[in-house]
Amino acid sequence: MVLALEQVGVAFGGFRALTDVTLSVAPGQVVGLIGPNGAGKTTCVNVLTGFQRPTHGKVILQGREVSGLAAHEMRRAGVARTFQAGRLFGGLDVLDNLACTGVGLGLRRSVAEHEASALLNWMGMAALESRAAAGLPYTDERRVAIARALMGKPRFLLLDEPAAGMSEAEAADLAALIGRIAAELGVGCLLIEHNVGLVLSVCTQVVVLDGGRIIEKGDREAILGSRAVREAYLGTYAEAA
Amino acid sequence: MPSQHQLRRRSAATTPLLLGLLLLTFVLVALGLGDRAIARMAAETLIRVTMVVGFWIFVGNSGVVSFGHAAFGCIGAYVSAWLTLNPAMKAALLPGLPEGLAAADWPVLPAAIAGGLAAAVIALLTGAAILRLSGIAASIATFAFLAMVNTIWANWTPVTGGTSSVVGLDRYITPWVALGWAFAAILVAALHAHSASGLALRATREDEVAAAASGIDRYRHRLLAYTLSGFFCGIGGALMGHFIGVINPDGFYLGLTFLMLAMLVIGGVGSLSGAVVGVLALSIAVEGLVRLEKGIAVGATTFALPPGSQEIILAVAMILILIFRPAGLMAGREVMLPARWVARRGT
Q: Is residue B76 assigned to a domain?
């Protein structure tokens, strides 16, 4: 009962964004995906959510190959995602933003709004319901985007740099929220983050990408002790300097 | 205690009624003035409301500009003409009509509905191809569709009469008939906008990528709106034909396309009220300017604008609106009863 990539490769013309990537997320599990800029993290999420077709390999959802499904079909199959930029529906209010996912999943509008209201309550954001999505403060925007992705109880949630630009305290709140999503809702989460501290605090498994390949996989200790990881990160720092 | 969101939804339900009342007042005032020309202007304006509201169902909710909707008007007008024209006349004017159509002598109402349905079917079939494209590419394809329909209609002489006009349509359109259809269009547009499909379509307008990530099948919702939209533009075309009594393929080409776009832009594409207000504003302005061109007598002297100034003044007005009020007169807002009133009634 997992969401997985099996030996996935993605090539854009001559450029290989991903090579032979195999990873999996189980329900209730939080898997971290880290790596330097340009390592292929977002491409991984795009492949897992139907936004990018793999050039090689398979996407597997609950034992079934789903490599050819379109993005909206993957969402209906239970794989939700957020984006680096919040990408809320700016002209709609917060409740309608969530209701959009509800109707996208085939609910009637009133049912979708009811569920949206309950979900905002669960996340402690009931007060935002009638606010316009455009112009929300940054952290609220991120949280609404997560709420929108949680509509219809997806089995998997892929978070693309949800903590980018957050303060330490805000990132800690986010970590707690991700923990609740996994524990209380049983959703399997894949967390892409640059904030390695955040990833190590909530993830039981971490996958490290560099140059489109997995260079390390394992629990916190394995990652902290890995030479390959240190080199990948130090390498980028060296290049940057 | 209902939330603000629910109150807003309830207020929004009053929009079609208020717009209907606005149009009713417009008709009563126009008829009250007792001037035949003004009564005709009112009927023509309401026909345009039907068309532009139909147009808005697709453009307003999807955010995709269409240049093809005048073609649906063309289809609606000709289908209604084929079904209602006197068979003897059709035998002379349109010898290529298939037997069923050649012999048809339908009452006007079912013929108008058939015109709308024919336009809707064509919208469904062409939309199935066009709406696979995204954004601007789809817009360009709708323009190609408009040109194709015009070329076919101008050259399929035995069936359409070609570039020479088809005459003798029953002129049954009174301001009241036009008001009925305009209100029907407004009601359907409002129901669609409030439906799950309407909301999903607006999500794709706001952000296509996020909409896909929300499970929304953009293609399906666009195609539904396009078909519905085609229906009312087809109805509008049929009404226009029976209003003037004469139809010609060029009456449903670039001139009409840009008039519909101008009305939508001036009123504001962001709301249904914008579509209605845009038609009223532009139609009334044109009527006023035409009268000024003819001249107004004040005592012994007659003041008149030089001929042709109507177009120039309108162009300047449109430019000013685009500069100072780019979202249109209504700027995305709807006319609705204040939430306070609705709350009192609802609780």
A: yes
SS3 B211: helix
Q: What part of B 252-271 touches A (C-beta under 8 Å)?
A: 270
- What is the least distance, in Å, from the CA of A119 to any CA of chain B? 15
Residue-range definition of the domain harbouring residue B116 = 4-253
Give domain limits for chain A. 24-78+154-169+179-241, 89-153
**Distance, CA of A98 to CA of A93 (rounded, Å):** 9
Nearest by CB to B3, from A51, A105, A130: name it: A130
A162 CA to chain B: closest CA distance, Å?
15
Q: How many domains, in total, are found in chain B?
A: 1
Check whether A237 has a pLDDT greater than 70. Answer: no
Instruction: Please state the ipTM of this predicted complex.
Output: 0.93
Q: Is B338 inside any structural domain?
A: no
Condensed to tens digits (0 to 9), the pLDDT of residues B266-277 reads: 999 999 999 999
The residue among B202, B214, B222 with the most chain A CBs within 10 A of its CB, best to mutate, is B214
In a domain, B234, yes or no: yes
Query: Residues of chain A with pLDDT > 90: what percent?
Result: 81
- The yes or no reply on domain A24-78+154-169+179-241 and CATH 3.10.20.30 is no
Beta-strand (E) ranges in chain B?
166-167, 246-247, 296-298, 301-303
Looking at per-residue pLDDT, the higher value among B103 and A197 belongs to: B103
